[in-house]
Amino acid sequence: MIQPRPRTIPEATVARLAVYLRVLTSLADGGRTTVSSGELASAAGVNPAGLRKDLSHLGSCGVRGVGYDVRALRERIARVLGAERSRACVLVGIGNLGAALADYAGFGSRGFHFVGLFDASPARVGQSIGGLTVQSMAELEATVTATDASIGVIATPADVAQQVCDRLTGAGVRSILNFAPVTLVAPAGVDVRPVDLSVELQVLAFLGQQRAVPAEEVTA
Amino acid sequence: MIQPRPRTIPEATVARLAVYLRVLTSLADGGRTTVSSGELASAAGVNPAGLRKDLSHLGSCGVRGVGYDVRALRERIARVLGAERSRACVLVGIGNLGAALADYAGFGSRGFHFVGLFDASPARVGQSIGGLTVQSMAELEATVTATDASIGVIATPADVAQQVCDRLTGAGVRSILNFAPVTLVAPAGVDVRPVDLSVELQVLAFLGQQRAVPAEEVTA
DNA sequence: AACTGTGAACTTCTTCACAGCC
DNA sequence: GGCTGTGAAGAAGTTCACAGTT
């Protein structure tokens, strides 16, 4: 049992590894067997040197003068990211966004599957989405326990997100992806990752206006 | 016309300013008139010193010993982010995710409004979502031109995202938010911001497993 | 000849510590 | 006393350049 690498991969690298995994899967499906860092970087939208540095964190398996074996590299990244075994997730809040997430094929192919969908509205409960039936909120804890789900996705309105977070963590969920536009507090040992679609749009718009008006006055 | 500040705000700061804006609006709605950096930072999930540094980029308007005026600070951030005037966006791909985005109230309250929804499926065209009627793809360029939309949101399947991107940029769109799991290439002067929901989940899951198994072997 | 792997320089971001002001 | 604004220190991430390998 040797320790092959100092087991710390920078978070920025992890995010890009997920992108490389997607690109490599696409390349493999297209029949490609080898790929160079330049091609892969271009397809992933990153710098080639940065890509090689990213891969070096997992004790890289490229061949100098040739490139990377597509399938071997994909397997290696999938193993590091833990995308080999599919992980159980529960989703709370089956509004428009929640329904979209429940039905999103991308999760299934990337190592995640939903084992429970929950909504507070009686009108939603009983509906079938993506092969699952929406359950009432009363069943949340029991389902989390029974399925041993470790990941929770919150797509509820902002005003109930914190109490949903409390119930999820209370039931044993250790990681939460939060789409509600509110900052959640969770016990130590629980990761909360916020995804705010409005923030993405605002950053995009700001960069655009900064480019368009490089030296404009802001004082009224 | 003096130049009050070197007009370069770090991108990381811009993203947080959008969060502060959200929190300040919530505070103002709750009747709060002043707030300290500590409180605001806690509500936004960031470090207080970092928040003050962020605000210093816009020639801060806090009062030492007291804090920040909630309404004044909100106005100031909104002006810098350009969130005062509402910007026209078009949305292409009205599947589950697209429909969710079209109906998402969060955009309207943050300085964005959709002026066009487009889908390739005849079954979708003519449907009404969030006050707009879904148009056919043939009408894309004409609508972008007529409305002078500068922001495009792509929520199509991956295999058509690039050609949608080409058409949007060809019609004059300068900023693109891309939800399709594919890397887009766009002409110089056009910003593309990818949002990959699977990547977010994968990063979250990795951090969780890294915490759970700090020194596990990866070699098979 | 081609391409990987990586130390080193560089840039960006974060955190600290404290002076300055109310 | 309490809180802001900011220079300085530190950490993290990115890019470069080139040695090393096939």
CATH-scheme architecture of the largest domain in chain A: 3-Layer(aba) Sandwich
How many individual β-strands of chain A? 9
Which CATH C-level class of the largest domain in chain A is it? Alpha Beta
What oligomeric state best describes the polypeptide chains here? Answer: homodimer
Characterize the overall form of chain A: globular
Percent helix range of chain A: 40-55%
β content of chain A, as a range?
15-25%
The overall number of domains of chain A is 2
> What's the order of the H and E elements of chain A?
HEHHEHEHHEEEHEHEEH
Unreliable segments of 5+ consecutive residues of chain A: 1-5, 215-220
CATH H level, superfamily name of the largest domain in chain A: NAD(P)-binding Rossmann-like Domain
Subcellular location (chains A, B): Cytoplasm
Domain CoA-binding (chains A, B): 82-183
Pfam families (chains A, B): CoA_binding, Put_DNA-bind_N
Family (chains A, B): Belongs to the transcriptional regulatory Rex family.
